[in-house]
Every structure is written in structure tokens, then in C-alpha cells.
Amino acid sequence: MTINVLTLFPEIFNTYIQTSIIGKAVKNNLVEINIYNLRDFGLGERKSVDGKPYGGGGGMVLRVDVIDKAIKKIRLTDPKTEIILLCPKGITYSQKTATELSQKPSITLICGHYQGFDHRIYELVDQVISIGDYITTGGETAALSILDSVTRLQPDVLNPESLTGETFQDNLTETPLYTEPSDFGGQKVPEILLSGHHRVIGEYRQKNRKKIPVR
After folding, report:
1. What is the average pLDDT value for the chain, to the nearest integer?
2. How far is the C-alpha of 62 from the C-alpha of 92, rounded, in Å?
3. What pLDDT was estimated at residue 165?
4. Could you read off the pLDDT of 160-189 as tens digits, one per residue?
5. What are phi and psi of 128, to 5 degrees?
6. Which of 4-8, 83-87, 202-206 is predicted with the least confidence, judged by mean pLDDT?
């Protein structure tokens, strides 16, 4: 799978995509991550990417012509990529969405900044995603969340057993987990988990998963 990220702050991603599970996935060619600097598509000597909103108001707005130029460049090398705008106006991201995106050959994440996007940019993308009902300084945190959650679902990135019974799978939480010591200040690990009976343990764990609260 290929994940492209269009951002004004590529340095935010440099360490992250070289670390832990993501870094191993990249190193093992299980996922390709390309970071594009939006400033490279800016206009004039100052590489301007934004402008004041028509009609007045605070903040600056990302230009439609700059985003269009960047998308066309990315599509030249990755024509089948799905273009995703990261914006509070989009559908709320979920594990279901992560699974759907993980099955695509390529996605491109566009990080917002400043006051927002020229409204015409929405016509250039395939879908709009929000990571929740709150505002962050830019779309980079959203892109990191999607990049992480999609990468870990790629084949061979994690042991398949690690993905079984996870929180949000089947709209349930993960079962309560325990490790050593078996007795901590009188709080003991349930005896059934020490029994060695794998079928019974599996049934116990499934029974103790709980429904995700409706938000």
C-alpha cells in the first residue's frame, strides 16, 4: 500500500515514520509513505499557499489552485490514489473506516492549516474525514492517526493474533488483560486465565469484552 501525505510541515512526520511498527513496515516494504511539502507547489518567490478570505474575516485560507496543482502532481505518479481531505466537516473516523482504507492500493491525506480550505477544494477530493469533534492546529495529527491505524492493518505488519479481539472490533472493547505478578496487593489475576485451558480461556475473554458506548 502507498500512503501520500500533503502537508506544510513535513518534518512532523520524519521521525514518526522511521519509528516502531511504522518504521518496520516501511523498512520491510510493506507500505510506502511519501511526504509532500505543500510549499513546493506555492506561488511566486515566497511560495504562497494561502490568501485572505473574500468578504473579510480572521485567518488565512488555503488556495484552491495550489491544492489542485499538488493533487495533479501526486496523481501523475500515483493515478489510482484516493484523495482524502482532513477537515472537521468530514465523516468521523472509525476503525471501520480504517479497515476500508487499509484495503485500498493508495490513499493521499491532505493536511489543513490556518483558517481552513477554499470551499472549491472539496470538489477536488474523493472524501472528507474528521478524527473527532474538536479542533487542532493543523491536519498533521489527523494524518498521523490515519497513517498509523491503516498501516498496522496491512498484511504481515503485525502478527494476525495481535489484531484478534482488539478494541472496536465487532463494536466491542478488548478483553481485560493481565501479566505478572499474579497477585498485586490482593488484586489477583482471574484463576481461569491461569488454568491452561485455551478453549475455556477464549470463551472467558470473549464474554468479558464489552460493547462500545454510543457517543
Report:
1. 89
2. 22
3. 47
4. 655 554 444 566 677 888 888 888 988 988
5. -120, 130
6. 202-206
Cα–Cα distance, 59 to 118 (Å, whole number): 12
Q: CA 143, CA 161: separation in Å to the nearest integer?
A: 26
Average pLDDT value for residue range 75-86: 97
Q: Is the peptide bond before 190 cis (omega within 30 degrees of 0)?
A: no
User: Which positions ≥6 away from 18 have C-beta within 8 Å?
Assistant: 26
Distance CA 94, CA 121 (A): 24
Determine the residue type at 68. Answer: D
The tally of CA atoms less than 13 A away on the side-chain side of residue 37 is 10
Three-state SS at 86:
strand
Taking the alpha carbons of 154, 159, 161, 167 in that order, is the dihedral positive or negative? negative
Nearest to 153 by CA among 193, 104, 206, 215: 104
CB 145 within 8 A of CB 41: no
C-alpha pair distances (Å), 139 with each of 104, 105, 136, 145, 187: 21, 22, 7, 10, 43
